[in-house]
Amino acid sequence: MEMKLGNPHDWWNNAVLYHVYLRSFADSNGDGFGDLRGAMDRLEYLLELGVDGVWLSPTTPSPNDDWGYDVSDYLGVHPDYGALSDLDEFIDRCDRLGLKVLLDLVPNHTSSKHEWFIKALSDPTSRYRKYYVFAKGKPDGSPPNNWIDATGSSAWTLDPSSGEYYLHNFLPTQPDLNWWNEDVQKEFENILRFWFDRNVAGFRIDVAHGVFKDRFLQDDPPAPEMSKEFSHFGLIETYSKNREDVHPLYRSWRRIADAYDPSRLLVGETWVGDFSKLASFYGNNDELNLAFNFMFVFSEFNAKALSEVVGKTLAALPVDASPVWTGSNHDISRFPTRWADGDDDKIRMALTILLTLPGTVFLYYGDELGMCDVEVAVELQKDPMTKLIPGARFQRDRARTPMPWREGPGRGFCDPMTTPWLPFGPEDARDVESQLRDHGSILNLTKGLIRLRNEAKETLSSYDLIEATEETWRYRCGSLEVMANFSEGVHEIETEKSQRVLSSRYLEGVTIRDDGRVEVGPKEVVVIKR
Ligand code: NOJ
Q1: Catalytic choice (269, 373, 431, 481)
Q2: In the chain, which end has fewer C-beta atoms inside a 10 angstrom radius, N or C?
Q3: Which residues face 132 on adjacent strands?
Q4: Ligand 1 atom 3: the closest Cα is on which residue?
Q5: Given a cut of 80, is residue 76 above it in pLDDT?
Q6: Ramachandran region, residue 523 (left: φ > 0; alpha: ψ -120 to 50; beta: rest)
Q7: Would you say the CB of residue 399 lies under 6 angstroms from ligand 1?
Q8: Does the pLDDT at position 227 exceed 60?
Q9: Does residue 229 have a pLDDT over 80?
Q10: Does ligand 1 lie within 6 Å of residue 385's CB atom?
Q11: What is the mean pLDDT of residues 408-431?
């Protein structure tokens, strides 16, 4: 059955967005951290890659307990990255190149160094006390409920001077905001307007599913047998996050965004394990424009699992909504490692699939190179969050190492004499310069696929599953017909001489046999353009 998707008037429909983890992208001033001027110097690269815009990880001032996701001033720029004027210039240059800019907005919590929290602690009678979630402990002095923070400890920390606890769903230095308080809502309306006025296209909204909590602070229930990614240290976050109350909030934000113009974009980090929940963030096309799909991210990499997750996602989304497909981000293992175990053929398959699905694709910096996770020695690790989790399954630092622009010291990321904030991966020719020189590289495949996607863009808003077996997945996405072969054997598909045929192995030059059939080899994806 063919499914129709997306709204052709939305610029993000069938677009490709590029996630720049700013600290690791390009360092212009020799301090080992990526920054705005460094990123500005690489805009031509992004333009040539063919993407439509960038999402910048948080640019706001922060003590960096969670590398920017602990904001101490929502209206500024972190000095490590430059000044507000640099961000203005970045937005302006992108605009002139036709690239959209999304900033990262962190509404769930502030840093404990934010002046609101400092005032909330120092004066319990101040209006800022109600900006946060303070509560009395149980009669025996234990925390108000069983909620668990991101490190596996209680989500409550005692404020000894008042005897009350405050809530933090992430680190104790990231106190959660109280979204029931209309003053908090007004603060964020002003924050949205401040940046929209500076011409950002929109925001990626951190923890978008979690900003509202249960008013009565009820205990989270134990997790039944389910996907490990969506259970939180053995609990389901029914009351500590995932409340329906977010919907009126996002409707109000959408009204603000649309009042600027309908090209403003709100994308939610919606970490949910249920398709109808995911769909609910789009509302009736009056809430978030896009919602990250973690069920796709955490899918097994095989024909059955991927086709099922794609089918269920598309069936759940409301009319006019664009689905979001992404393989990597700064919190999880990169897909070239997680899905492909570093195997080039599988990395190429994944990129070809990602870039031939209908909707919006987010690439994480380095995905286009097939960049893998990098082992980071304990003494070099920088992520306080995963360091605090006993037996953490994944060290986020591994997915945040600097972009390898070329071979040699500094890798083109920083000055050759500078030590980057996180180590580089091995010199395995997965750098930009080497790959640009090599016609058959993963980077050139990605560029070719984005070119193909852009050429077919107008047609891509439909999806039709042809077949999914244990070995292969065949679908039609607008004018593209795709056959992904996950097996070790050879499969065949029919085509016509007049059609363009591309392969994840080497992009162009696929042999069409006299009988009009094309072989799809082991771990290969073939795309036919009608
Ligand atoms: C999600 C962000 O992507 C992650 O990096 C951060 O630690 C948490 N939210 C808390 O802000």
Answers
A1: 269
A2: N
A3: 177
A4: 331
A5: yes
A6: left
A7: no
A8: no
A9: no
A10: yes
A11: 95
Query: Which residues touch 53 (CB under 8 Å, ≥6 apart)?
Result: 12, 15, 17, 18, 94, 99, 100, 101, 102, 201
- Distance between CA atoms of 347 and 342, rounded to whole angstroms? 7
Task: Reply yes or no on whether the pLDDT at 393 is more than 80.
Answer: no
What length is written for the chain?
530
For ligand 1, atom 6, name the residue with the nearest CA: 69
State the closest ligand 1 atom to the C-alpha of 108, by its place in the atom list counted from 1: 11
| pLDDT tens readout for residues 82-109 | 999 999 999 999 999 999 999 999 999 9
pLDDT at 2 over 90: no
How many whole angstroms separate alpha carbon 179 and alpha carbon 166?
A: 14
User: Tokens in use for 371?
Assistant: 């960049």
Confidence (pTM): 0.97
Answer yes or no: 269 catalytic. Answer: yes
- How far is 401 from 23, CA to CA, in rounded Å? 9
All domains of the chain in start order, with CATH: 7-109+182-448 (3.20.20.80), 115-167 (3.90.400.10), 459-529 (2.60.40.1180)
CA distances from 219 to 25, 143, 243, 255 (A): 41, 11, 14, 34
Q: Whose CA is nearest to atom 11 of ligand 1?
A: 69
**Mean local confidence (pLDDT), 324-344:** 98
Q: Which amino acid is at 229?
A: E
